[in-house]
Design brief:
Rossmann fold, eight-stranded mixed sheet, alpha/beta, binds S-adenosylmethionine, 8 strands
Length: 201
């Protein structure tokens, strides 16, 4: 899909075709590695990576034996994901869609959020919160990496903690105690991504 629309003014598919993808680390996110190492994914069976692009975490979840869904607007990105999965004999469900409009038949255990919320228009944030809440079963986890950015505009659009506290209210989400761990993004001027696991009530 290479069309843009009012919902998604960025032509993401063309970005993948042109390889103008500065958000791509090319390796597993260090927060993913830390969460995996700590066992945070152990009791999560069905996980979605929304706006997965070509990120290697999808394949890494499949390698852990998870039932994983990769979703993206970009057919080019999903074709790359399929090639990576096939190359390692792994499987994932791939959905090419505006994923905010999608709902699963059976609620999921986990969502891995990496540079997706910061990529969509802030106008869609309420819709994002409604969607991710609907995707998860009670007790389901949102593994979030909230992009910190002071400059206006985007993408990426900044996801300051205060705004995230409002977007994911206490009556719908349980917030962990303590300060979130910042992970600088080396290809985005070391902008920090705050790693937080929210639990759906
Ligand atoms: C900044 S990229 C991040 C890709 C990937 N998460 C990563 O870390 O490499 C944002 C991704 O979200 C996808 N995207 C944007 N809006 C979307 C939507 N409404 N539904 C599904 N995917 C969307 C884009 O096609 C793109 O792959």
């Amino acid at each position: 899909m290479s069309e843009t629309s009012e919902r998604t003014p960025m032509d993401w598919d063309q970005r993948f075709k042109d390889n103008t993808t500065p958000w791509e680390r090319g390796v597993l996110h260090p927060a993913f590695l830390d969460w995996r190492e700590s066992g945070a994914f152990d009791d999560r069976e069905r996980i979605i990576v929304p706006g997965c692009g070509r990120s290697p975490e999808l394949k890494a979840f499949a390698a852990l034996g998870k039932q994983v869904i990769g979703a993206d607007l970009s057919g080019t990105a999903l074709a790359a994901q399929k090639a990576m999965l096939d190359g390692d004999g792994l499987q994932a469900e791939l959905i090419e869609a505006d994923i905010l409009l999608w709902r699963p038949d059976t609620p999921l255990d986990g969502i891995y959020e990496q540079t997706f919320l910061c990529a969509i228009s802030p106008r869609l944030r309420q819709e994002y919160e409604q969607a991710v809440h609907a995707w998860l079963k009670p007790g389901g986890k949102l593994f979030a990496l909230f992009m910190q950015k002071n400059e206006p505009g985007g993408p990426p659009y900044g996801c300051p903690l205060e705004a995230m506290r409002e977007l994911f209210p206490d009556d719908r989400w349980e917030w962990p105690d303590g300060d979130p761990v910042p992970y600088p993004h080396p290809l985005l001027d070391d902008k920090a991504e705050l790693a937080i696991i929210l639990t759906r009530r």
